[in-house]
Amino acid sequence: MNSSQITHTNSEIKIEHNETNIENIIGNEFSTFWIRDLTTGHLKVSKGIEVIYKRSAEEFNEDPTLWETLFYPEDLDVIEKIENQLLKGETTDYEYRVILPDGSIRWIRDQAAPLMDAQNNIIKTYGFITDVTDYKHLQIELTKNRQHFQQIIESVDMIIWTFNMLTGDTIYSSNSAEIFGIPSTAFQENSNLWWEIIHPEDVDSALKHLHILEQGKPTSNTYRIIRPGNGQIRWINDRAISIKDKQNRVIGFQGVKVDVTESKMTEEKIHYMAFHDSLTGLPNRYHLNERLEELLSLYQGTTSKLSILFIDLDRFKLINDTLGHYYGDLLLIETAKRLSDILSAKGMVSRQGGDEFILLLEDTGRSEVEEIAKKIIERFTFPFDLEGKEIFSTPSIGISMYPEDGQDSDTLVRNADLSMYEAKRKGKNRYRFFEATQIKTASNTVSMEINLRKALRNQEFLLHYQPIVNLENGEMTGVEALLRWESPNRGLVSPLEFIPLAEETGLIVPIGEWVMLQACQQLKQWHNLGYKKVDISVNVSMRQFQEENFVCSVEQVLTKTGLEPHYLTIEITESIMQNTNESISIINKLKELGVKIAIDDFGTGYSSLSVLRDLSLDKIKIDKTFVNDIGTNKDFILKTMIDLAKNLKMQIVAEGIENGQHVEFLKNHNCDFGQGFYFARPSSAHAIEDKLKKQA
């Protein structure tokens, strides 16, 4: 090396031991050179150091210890390393911090080396310093960003990967072991490993996206993998781009794989919730419509058939109102199970809402559909066991078929719905196929509802009364108030036509309140005229009975009319027994008022003897179907019912008495009262008043 030459590289620095040469370096205003004499401790620095340290070269030259006071305290261990290595004859390259006069901190890169004499003894140390503060800040920022980026990757279960088509090398980020249970080195050893863990059903999709990458286009694909070891299935979103050379040829791929299992599960849950009924787990109406549309599109132009069975539970509202929504929900759940068992794999069972279910049958003819409908009705003859409570509920079923009853989903469902209402109108617990005439019937029903509301508003209702007779002496002891509708357009409308509709629409409540008031007013009027004081019986629907203010409304009627409470008998049906506790509470409150309670149409519902005992009833009205059995081998049932009522200390009223044979049988078996055409048909208040005059 020439005596005037200085070699200064990133790895080492060398300087010829020549005083003139050293002085020239130190005198260079751009040089950042320093040299320390180990024998004297004297320190010399070049002019360029003044710019970095904001100190004059003279200050350093005059005070050799000044340099040491500038080191950042936390970096003194670095300074110690530099000095130790230099004294061992080694070159050094370190970074440390110094404190400037204004208190600011700068990063310094110090490249130093020992200087030897002819005997190879270390006599001096020297070096070059560089202000690397800006670089260091950038490096720190990059490190922070890299750490932040790594945290992001780890927080979203992200893996960065690259594949080199030329070498076959596959590189995965280090967190692959944590996310997928496979260390990143395993991918380097086996470049096909990822393909081996892709779910078999998703391989075709993955290959398709690989071909897209090979064409130089970006791609994004979501698929499943089977995690090695535990066999767990994970959902992966794989986003990738192609790597190209200068000739624009694809030489590899790179991308990120994100574990999206949780979001996918949430997405599937939301989708399930959107297309399934939350109570029963059955497909809902949206799911049904989607499947129905698919089948109609598939069947178009073919001879294939499909069927819609629209099912509604009879008396469901009554059960729901009497037992409460909890048991109503249990009934719906059990209904869903029964229908699913019956249908098996022949189609889809869906819940439309409320107590309505739809069965969608694929490739089925009329005879097969009819068999399924019969099977449903037969299965529903068995009671539902709802946590120990036995509940009976029957189905009304409407059936429409493709293509004859409709070409689109809306028409098919609507026509099946119309058929279901026709089944209800015909007596419930049956099925009906769609017929065009049902559209007219439905239209009439809508029209009747409108007219029914007008009737209530325009006072088109009136009461007829049927006498109740003491069987022992033939005297009239009471009357039953019976509702009639005298429509200006339809004439006298049968209660069988409008009462079920009033029940369904809720109009039965205000109509029932009107009946109660009119009946009590009429009886009080007869009492005031001095006629024999008879009782009056008023039928109350379960819907009205369950009204929160029912007892209060009865009390108000009695107060308003001035009728003594014990002359009023409220008739309720056996369905009251579906919710014993609430019914007992209402009955007890009515009894406190002095009102009498009777069970109407006894024997036609589902009675429990223990409940019958607990209800504290005054009367039992035996349904006419049992009276009609008099003279047959079934009349023992009627005798048993009379004996039962007598043992329970209740009065008995037999309904539907039509001849003397009925009267004699009932008298012989100690029945108290009777009513029916044999004694009198229902008639106007004036006709009853005439009877009262004669009896007086």
From TrEMBL:
Ranges where the PAS domain occurs: 145-217
Gene3D superfamilies to which the protein is assigned, alphabetical: 3.30.70.270, EAL domain, PAS domain
Coiled-coil region list: none
Entry-linked PROSITE patterns: EAL (PS50883), GGDEF (PS50887), PAC (PS50113), PAS (PS50112)
GGDEF domain mapped to chain residues: 304-436
Superkingdom of this protein's organism: Bacteria
Domain annotation EAL: ranges: 445-696
Limits of the PAC domain: 92-144, 219-272
NCBIfam families named among the record's database cross-references: GGDEF, sensory_box
Annotated protein name in UniProt: EAL domain-containing protein
Lineage: Bacteria, Bacillati, Bacillota, Bacilli, Bacillales
